[in-house]
Amino acid sequence: MTRTPAERAAAVLAGDVRTAARLMRDLDDEVPGAAETMGLLHRHTGKADVVGITGNPGAGKSTLTDQLIGAWRARGLRVGVVAIDPSSPFTGGAILGDRVRMQRHSADRGVFIRSLATRGLLGGLSRSTRDVVNVLDAMGFDRVLIETVGVGQDEVDVANTAHCSVVVLVPGLGDGVQALKAGLLEIADLFVVNKADRPDADRVVRELELVLELEGGVRHGWRVPVLRTVATENRGVEALLDAVEAHLAHLRATGAWQTRLRARRQGELTDRLFHALRRRSEAAIGRAGGMDTLLDRLDRGEVGPDALVSELLDGAP
Amino acid sequence: MTRTPAERAAAVLAGDVRTAARLMRDLDDEVPGAAETMGLLHRHTGKADVVGITGNPGAGKSTLTDQLIGAWRARGLRVGVVAIDPSSPFTGGAILGDRVRMQRHSADRGVFIRSLATRGLLGGLSRSTRDVVNVLDAMGFDRVLIETVGVGQDEVDVANTAHCSVVVLVPGLGDGVQALKAGLLEIADLFVVNKADRPDADRVVRELELVLELEGGVRHGWRVPVLRTVATENRGVEALLDAVEAHLAHLRATGAWQTRLRARRQGELTDRLFHALRRRSEAAIGRAGGMDTLLDRLDRGEVGPDALVSELLDGAP
């Protein structure tokens, strides 16, 4: 692996899966040369349609993702997937899950699945996710799917990164008002009620539609639909795919597609800047004798928190 | 309101609710003098027991919080609450909810409830939360309860801030393996299965206990228990409170209480540093002509993302 960034970039552009996977890992680990390679790939990004899919644990997102991959493949489209698995914010460990479930696609060259664990560091997740999305984009995948869990800053970031955000709900998990409360309404371009064969599915759909009506439910001239699926039986998946594709076509027709791409670019630049800043602050803490020394000084009341921050950043005594 | 930071700090320490509420707002808005006031309060913090309570939307956390407040009050303890309501990551707007539900405590001087909305900015939530916790701590509240939704970076931060983390689950929302997958196991000091009168509650409790057994289920010598509540009927709340208090006593007995306080202090310092760095990066973007100018330069391929970040941070052309 003594190839130059230019050679690696060329291999990724040619669709070399092994080089791409290695580059993703190297970007994550900040191996020298990886950022340079990504810099060369940058102008080849901005072509893929990026679709986010989020929902609470147990909503059936992984199964739905699996079905969506199959449906896109049947339409001749190549699909890259980033599955963000916050299984272990503390240990970074991986747990049996999405990977195994999606193994039926593992022999398909038109599908590339990358799982990421939360790092437990501010901005860490976003940066890795964005890098993987960009590598998949540069490789020429037609659709890039980002699967996340729950609703938090990560999901807001994903909504800002994706062209189309799909929010998956299930009956029995709260009602439309809960969805509203959880901030899902601002994120969703499409709602999916999965496990729609459950008895209380109709009520959830009605409540969501009611809440959408009350709140406008229109984003950039797009009326947010509520769809039903039974992912385990592959029911409703084609209709969901049609709706996703209709939303992407709508974005392209109105120019909103470019606006969202630009928002993604802005997020990337901000992330990158933050990351560099965090590195610098870690270095400053190190120069000041390490975190324990600083906390001891705070505990003894020698210095206040704000004065300490100024000292760290400006190098003043 | 032309009081000096010292006067405001004295008023907060004397338990003046109005001054405390104003200080929390001012800290959030970064009104000049607020950080100085907090600096003066800093050495009066580190006394309260901080308890986190988290779970998915619809798990009944708000009702449970309400009941816990009542139970603590009945034991003569004063309770501060930070309810983090991510109702609207984009607009910051507030939605009818926790505040209304907890109004029965509004005339009680032994209870202080503060709702926060997610800001949609990296680190914004954590900083506000930590500030509010510290003000409540300085005011002498015996217990400070932090209520959050779901599992994300915010909840991991809360777990790192709190002495005791309570995770609320409900039947029908997935099983023990889902909890494991969602990273709840690393966060929880206590599990609560709320709505325990539902038919499948036993199954959820059993699965959780099984998963806990497989994974060890012991943190710092504390065996993580699984409790049952029916918050709407105030059933199981006393037993939950007993378990929380037993955990706090365990932490004090083993010295882990101080370790967790120190972890909170470290998080505070890191947040503060990060926030200062973000301010600086925003200023750098402004000096470089604003975000749009930078994105245009990237789009035209004049500069790569990494070179641009170096330019922004080092002021190089």
Structure description:
2 copies of one chain form a homodimer. Chain A is α/β, with parallel strands linked by helices and 317 residues long. Chain A has 3 domains: 44 residues, no CATH class; 208 residues, 3-Layer(aba) Sandwich (Rossmann fold), CATH 3.40.50.300; 45 residues. Helices cover 52% and strands 14% of the residues of chain A. Chain A has 14 helices and 9 strands. In chain A, the strands form 2 sheets. A 7-stranded parallel β-sheet of chain A has the order 3-2-4-1-5-6-9, sandwiched between helices. In chain A, β2, α5 and β3 form a beta-alpha-beta unit. The longest helix of chain A has 32 residues. The radius of gyration of chain A is 22 Å and the shape is globular. About 7% of the residues of chain A have low confidence. Chains A and B meet through α3, α7, α8, α12 and α13 of A and α3, α7, α8, α12 and α13 of B.
Strand line-up in the sheet with most strands of chain A = 3-2-4-1-5-6-9
Low-confidence stretches of chain A: 87-101, 119-124
Secondary structure class of chain A reads alpha/beta
In the CATH scheme, the class of the largest domain in chain A would be Alpha Beta
- Helix content, binned percent of chain A: 40-55%
- Could you state the order of secondary-structure elements of chain A as H and E? HHHEHEHEHEHEHHEHEEEHHHH
Radius of gyration of chain A over alpha carbons? 22 Å
Q: Any idea what the CATH architecture of the largest domain in chain A is?
A: 3-Layer(aba) Sandwich
